[in-house]
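User: Let's play a game. I give you a shape written as tokens, and you guess the letters that built it. Ready? Here's round one.
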């Protein structure tokens, strides 16, 4: 059986996507690649893993040959906030990692490649409400610039070389297993830890900053659905809009207060506010729905309840009425 290589497997999305892939395709058929951040014990014990810096072309190729890889999922990236602190590192990791992924796939004639894009491809000149699939892409962050370039390169490799690259513009992903790696939507994860621990959160975005979001089970579902979609039905390839919900910090805090009534939130916006202000408030994902049947399962209310249950269990701090 041919195998999937997941690069960046120890990150926020990788740490939950990889167990789901192993469950579906078998532990031995999903090879995990970590770089500096080591893999959690349970992932390392369950199946094959390797160390790989995505920029190391020779080692990348060697691993694909050694493990008979047919599909690469490249999750290695520097996200929006960290990217603004070190733009050249973001360019180097995101662009050279992507080119390596596409070149390895082309040279070794692999079946498929998946590299996520982001709502960061949009900028202040894009319509911000119900942002269309095919629209203006003029981001103002280095992260966004790398994601637009990634989408264009993915589409180029598909038409020029027949590399079956797929990708979607994830919104902010909310999850309970691994903390996010340095983005602008990270507040929507941090808030749950602080609400359960301290009943207080100091938010780095303004109260009314509306952003598109998705709970991790929907992110995993969308990723597997797009990977398995019939290529002949796809009109888009590396740049699908997807979404599940949109909310502001104030609306999320109100939802949390249904379970923790004395939860307090204060707002002290920092440099991430300008990034958030350049991104859409809501997304039109009708192309994903039409081309590969996308439909989310989680809205704000359902996500909030499940996050509070998971974080209270993780921190071993009961939330009355939930645990
Ligand atoms: P993350 O920062 O949590 O994880 C990324 C992983 O990549 C980390 O484990 C890091 O060690 C690894 N990495 C960094 N540089 C590397 C290198 N040179 N070689 C190999 N590995 C390296 O990120 P994530 O949230 O899991 O994001 C995964 C993908 O999804 C990224 O492409 C990101 O842009 C995209 N995305 C994420 C979100 C989100 O909200 N999490 C939203 C939109 C898009
Ligand atoms: C970030 O905030 O940088 C990410 C993203 C939306 O791409 N979560």
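Assistant: Ready! My guess for every position:
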């Amino acid at each position: 059986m041919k195998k999937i290589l997941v690069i960046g497997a120890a990150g926020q999305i990788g740490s939950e996507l990889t167990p789901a892939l192993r469950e579906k395709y078998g532990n031995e058929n999903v090879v995990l690649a970590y770089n500096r951040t080591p893999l959690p014990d349970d992932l390392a014990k369950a199946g094959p893993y390797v160390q790989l810096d995505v920029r190391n072309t020779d080692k990348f190729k060697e691993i694909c040959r050694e493990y008979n890889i047919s599909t690469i999922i490249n999750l290695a990236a520097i996200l929006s906030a960290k990217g603004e602190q070190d733009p050249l590192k973001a360019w180097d990791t995101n662009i050279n990692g992507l080119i390596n992924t596409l070149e390895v796939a082309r040279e070794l004639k692999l079946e498929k490649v998946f590299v996520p894009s982001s709502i960061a491809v949009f900028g202040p000149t894009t319509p911000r409400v119900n942002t269309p699939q095919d629209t203006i892409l003029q981001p103002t962050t280095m992260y966004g610039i790398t994601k637009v370039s990634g989408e264009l390169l993915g589409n180029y490799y598909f038409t020029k070389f027949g590399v079956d690259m797929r990708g979607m513009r994830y919104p902010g992903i909310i999850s309970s297993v691994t903390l996010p790696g340095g983005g602008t939507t990270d507040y929507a994860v941090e808030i749950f830890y602080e609400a359960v621990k301290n009943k207080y959160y100091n938010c780095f975005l303004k109260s009314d900053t509306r952003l598109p979001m998705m709970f991790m089970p929907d992110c995993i579902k969308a990723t597997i659905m797009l990977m398995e979609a019939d290529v002949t039905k796809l009109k888009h390839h590396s740049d699908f809009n997807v979404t599940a919900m949109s909310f502001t910090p104030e609306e999320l805090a109100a939802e949390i207060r249904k379970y923790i009534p004395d939860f307090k939130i204060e707002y002290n916006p920092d440099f991430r506010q300008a990034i958030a202000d350049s991104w859409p408030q809501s997304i039109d994902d009708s192309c994903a729905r039409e081309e590969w049947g996308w439909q989310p399962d989680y809205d704000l209310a359902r996500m909030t309840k499940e996050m509070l249950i998971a974080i209270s269990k993780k921190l071993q701090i009961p939330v009355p009425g939930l645990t």
